[in-house]
C-alpha cells in the first residue's frame, strides 16, 4: 500500500485541526480526499442508474420480471459490501489491477443497483393503467408510452431511489480507505492507526457531513429534474397510481415493492428498501 | 506482481492450519450479530410500544431511528472510539442503533395490520389488554416482525465486518489481516464466510418465521 499517513500532531484539538487551512488544501488535504470520494461515488451512482433504470422501466413496462425484482431485493440486501469488496481485492490483485478502485467500485455498484432498480420497477408498474390506456388511445406506441408517459410519471419516485442509493454509497465509500484506497475514510483509518482521537472524530464528522450534504443536494436536484406537473401531482395527494395499489407505499415515503405472487402474503411492504444492504 | 504459486486466491491448507483463528472469528461474528440484533429487538420493542401507546411519539421515534440509520457506519464506529475505547461496547452500540429503524417500523407495521374487527372480537370475548396483545395481536403481527428481524440480521452481519476497523468485527478481521499482509487467503475466507453467514441466517430466520406462523402458508391471498 502506498498511502501516505497523515502527519498530524496527536495533541491537536479538533477545532484547531478542522479550522486550519493546511488541513483542507494540498495533496493530502480534505478537499482532495473529498474530491476523490465524490468522483468514485458519482461514477458508481451513474453506472448503477444506467444499469438499473432502463432495465427496471422496461421490465415494468412489459409487465415482466416480478420474480427477478424479488430476487434482486433479497440477494441485494444480503450482500455485505465490505466483504464483497474484500473478496474482490484478491481477484483484482491477481489480475494486476491493484487494490483500488475496482473492488470498491463494483461492491458499491452492487449496493446501489437494488434500490434504484426497485423504485424504478415499482414506480413504472404503478402508473395508472387508465393513463396508459388513454395514451394508447391517443395513438402512442409502446415505446412512446414507456418513454413519454410511464417514465415521466414515475420520475419522482425513481429519483427517490437514486437519492437513497447515492446517500448509501457516500456513507459506505469510506471502507475504501481500509481496503488500501484513498478518499475521506483515510482520516479515520489514520486516526485509528495512530491512536489519534482528533483525526478519528474529524474524519467521522467529515464522512457524516458529506453523506448529509449528498441527501440535501439530491433533494435540490429533484426540484430541477422533476417536471413541475409531476411534482404537482404529489402536492394534491393525487399520486400517479391506481387506487388499489396505493397500500403498497412504504412508511417512509419511499416506494416499496410487493411481488404479485408472494406479495399478498409477504408483509415486507415498507421494509424492503430500507434494508437494502449496509452503509 | 504476486507470484501465483505463493499467493493464490485461496490456499486450502490455510483452512486446516488456521482453523482455530477462523473459528474464533466466526464465533465472535455470530456473537456480535446476536448481541446487536437481540439488544436492538429489546430497544425497538420498547420504542414501538411507546409509539403504539402514545401516538404522538410515533413521528419523533421514527425520525430519530431514521436519523441513526443515515449515519455512516465507519463514522459511527470512529466517533465512539474516543469515548468507549476499542471494545465490544463500541462495536455493539452502532449495531444496535442501525437495527432500530427496520425493527421499529416492522413492529409498528405488524401491530397496525391487525384488523380492528379482530381486536374488537378479542375484547368482546373478555380478553384483558395484555392477553389480547400476547395471544391475538402478537401472532398476527409476527410475519412482519420476523421479516424485520431478517433484514436487521442480514444488515448486521455486513456491519460487523466493518467493525473490524476498530479491532472487533469477527470475520472482518480476517479480511483486514489479509490486506495488511497482502495475503489473499484470509481475505477470501473472511469475505466468503460472512456472505454465507448472511444467507444462512436469513434462511434460518425465514424457516423459523414459517414454522411460527403456519396459517400464512395458504389462503390469505386477499389484500389486507
| Architecture (CATH level 2) name of chain A | Orthogonal Bundle
Rg from alpha-carbon coordinates of chain B: 21 Å
The helicity of chain B comes to: over 70%
Envelope shape of chain B:
elongated
Structural class of chain B: mainly alpha
| Parts with pLDDT < 50 across at least 5 consecutive residues of chain B | none
Alpha carbon gap, first and last residue of chain A: 24 Å
**CATH superfamily name of chain A?**
MetI-like
Tell me the series of helices and strands of chain A, N- to C-terminal. HHHHHHHHHHHHH
Q: Which assembly state applies to the chains in this document? A: heterodimer
Shape of chain A: elongated
> What order do the SSEs of chain B take from the amino end to the carboxyl end, as H and E?
HHHHHHHHH
Rounded mean pLDDT score of chain A? 74
How many beta-strand runs of chain A? 0
- How confident is the prediction overall: mean pLDDT of chain B? 85
Secondary-structure arrangement, i.e. CATH architecture of chain B: Orthogonal Bundle
> What profile does the largest beta sheet of chain A have?
none
**What class, by secondary structure content of chain A?**
mainly alpha
CATH secondary-structure class of chain B: Mainly Alpha
Write up what this structure looks like.
The complex is a heterodimer of chains A (279) and B (224). Chain A is mainly alpha-helical and 279 residues long. Chain A has one domain: MetI-like (MetI-like fold). Chain A is built from 13 helices and no strands. In chain A, helix 3 packs antiparallel against helix 8, helix 4 (66-78) packs antiparallel against helix 6 (102-125) and helix 10 (185-193) packs antiparallel against helix 11. Residues 1-5 and 235-279 of chain A have low confidence and may be disordered. Chain B has one domain: Orthogonal Bundle (MetI-like fold). Chain B has helices at 12-17, 19-53, 58-70, 73-84, 88-112, 116-124, 129-162, 171-181, 184-212. The longest helix of chain B has 35 residues, at 19-53. The N and C termini of chain B lie far apart (60 Å). The model of chain B has no long low-confidence stretch (mean pLDDT 85).
